[in-house]
Amino acid sequence: MPIVFLGVLNSYPSGLNYYYFLANMLTFAQQFLIKSMVDDEKIHKTLQDNKTKPVVEKKKSRFSAKLEDYMRQQQQAQIQQKKNK
Predict the structure, then answer these.
(1) Is the alpha carbon torsion for 53, 54, 55, 57 positive or negative?
(2) How confident is the model at residue 71 (pLDDT cuts 50, 70, 90)?
(3) Considering the entire predicted model, what is its pTM?
C-alpha cells in the first residue's frame, strides 16, 4: 500500500505523501509488536480448554423466575382450555 500511495500521491504536496508513508510504517511496526507479544498457542489452548468445561447455569433473578412461572401457568391454562373444548 505505501508503494501504491507513493506512485499515486507523488504529484501531490510532499506533506500528504509523507503522512501516508509514516502512518503506514507506524501501523506495520504496531502490528509487528503486537504479533511478537501475543502467544497464539497459549490463546488457542485456553480456547480449547474453555470449550471442554461444562456449562454452568446462571442463577435466575426473581423477575426471570416469576416470568417463567407465569408463562408456564399460561401454557397449562391453554392446554386445559383445549381439553375442555
Answers:
(1) negative
(2) very high
(3) 0.41
